[in-house]
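Section: Multi-chain targets

For targets with more than one molecule, the full set of components is provided together so that the structure can be written out for the assembly as a whole rather than chain by chain. Components appear in the order listed by the source. The example entry contains two components.
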Amino acid sequence: MPNATVTGKAKDRSGSTTPPPKRRAPRLTTLFGRQPLGIGLAAPYAVFLAAVFAYPLGLAVWISFHDYFFTAPGAQVARPFVGLDNYKTALADPAVRRSFLNVVEFLVINVPLTVVLALVLANALNGAIRGRTFLRVAYYVPYVTASVAVVAVWLFLFSSNGMVNQLLGPLAPDPSWLINNKLVMPVIAIFVTWKQLGFFILLYLAALQNVPRELYEAASVDGAGKFRSFMNVTVPGVRPATTLVVILATITGANLFTEPYLLTSGGGPNGASASPVLVMYQKGIEQGNPDVASAIGVILVIGVLVISLINRRLLERD
Amino acid sequence: MKSNKVAAAAVLTLAIGTTAACGSSGGSGGSDASGAQAAHGPVNVWLSNNPEEVAWGKAMVEAWNTAHPTELVTAQEIPAGKTSEEVIGAAITAGNAPCLVFNTAPAAVPQFQKQGGLVALDSFPDGKAYVEARTGAPADQYKSPDGKFYQLPWKSNPVMIFYNKDIMTKAGIDAENPPLATYDEFLATSKKIVSSGAAQAAIWPAPTSEFFQSWFDFYPLYAAETGGKQLVEDGKATFDSEEGKRVSNFWRTMYAEKLAPQEKYPADSFADKKAAMSIVGPWAISVYGDKVKWGAVPVPTSAGTTADKTYTFSDAKNIAMYSACKNQGTAWDLLKFSTSKDQDGALLDKTGQMPLRKDIATVYADYFSSHPDYKKFADQAARTIEVPNVPNSIAIWQTFRDGYTSSVIFGKTPIDDAFKTSSDKVTALAGQS
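Its structure, encoded as tokens over all components, is:
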């Protein structure tokens, strides 16, 4: 049809002195846009995404609706469609429900703490303070250190006879931090905040470079102190970065696995620190029920998407 | 408009993935099973990463290769992973599992079998006869529900109570004959150890949630208390019983009175002398041998059963043949070679682990007379209980562990309620295919 329109226009203009310019490859433009080279350059990454993201995600969704288990190549097994059975099984399991509540508790502590600490520390590191380079590196070191090594240190710090309890003396909690139903998730949330902080400070440091100096000068002329400038200039100035930090912290937090796996040896005490991903690992890999594990995964993905969209709407609102 | 584009992209991404996924679902084709079983040629095997077992494995393979130059065997340690079972499970799915794994956990066998990853040893003409002749009646515990052997019972580590003689003496307890036979004796001895300050804990089994931890606290005592009952028998959970509750109440008291800590020790509590006792197999002799003056006694029972009637958990590791193996004929011959009387003797000599063969105390009498420390474990090896070979084995142990940690370790729920709930779930899981 577009060709017919072009032909019609050419006929209308046939009476004019100059012939109409010939359009070049409109189909190509329709398919690949005005910059086909861009498509070409982006294609490898798109293929990569399809292979490592779209395919596994699609497979997980498919598995979650079927009676599925991993088999040897060539094994003939029936994998009937089971509708929402795997979702019902997952949601009927108290361990799964508990894990989702645990991760909500984790996010409620971890995300605001991450945003506030990262922004405050980035703001401080952005100023002319003594030992700035050392501090920037120091905050980043936990992020690049292997979790296994860092977890071992925290185990010694927070175990019953650990340094923290020795410092607290009679004020030490009983049961101790890592076997206390109420304290274990906050400890993990603080651990993850500390470990990831370097990365988020880096994001805020980059964002702070884009806040115009003139705004601070104008605020100063208006009589604003450091706190006022921070609240009225810095915080709004890095809002896009805050959106990114909140969404990234939410996504990484929802995928919590290593810390409960190592720090509390499988989500203890009594499931109080089990995360959905840990339960997925137990059900999918250890117990050979990838169908139920996939259902948990799909629920988690939907939950994270919803939370991220809400965060984005709230944070980007003027 | 922007939101619509994002939504469309997400749906498209998902659709592509789902389509791709559906396209690849389901198995097809099949291997020529009978052809593979007759085939001879090179094979590969995986060994445990225990240094002593690796040394035995390499010597065994060298002996085989010298005698069979056209059927060479390649051995390597099981690739690193969170657990051996996960690595083997992944290898089955990928189709690159080795011919034999000399470290197959009995609890994982039902899952590997369900995956189509194992070869039934009964499919070899002399398969069933060989397994039964070597192991005797205890081999029945390793049969799958279809009546076939998908694993060869290889070696066990019958667990006993290992104790530190110095700590016992420090606590004013007779180190050569500590009173540990009954629950009352065990509790009284434990109280003395802790109250005297001789050690921080009487015993420190891992109080964590991993499915296998019950094999080293509840299960050995349950085997002893019941005279050799498995967790599941005839498709039904057995632990919601008087015996099961007696064992659980014993452990609850240990935790409630802080004789056993509720928090995992980050290293080896027995080696670090933080705990006076530990539940271990004969491997511990070589590990603790020179560092700790140790003694070993059977696990306690409520009535103080004599050692010659006390059962325990076997902590066995077996050999299984994997369906990805192309030269199963050679693999079967190698399996028999590696579990011959001579090779079992070499394994015992190098590792101290007990071959799951009949009458080891008499077959290897010379070894036990020159290694008297191992004699108690050899005697105990005759009375061991394996994990039940039932569908959903790992899920069953995890279900049991969850109820146990909640009620026994942390005392959050009454033992009666927790065991009833766990028992119903376990019976349901055992009944699923």
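Chain A has one domain: 85-315.
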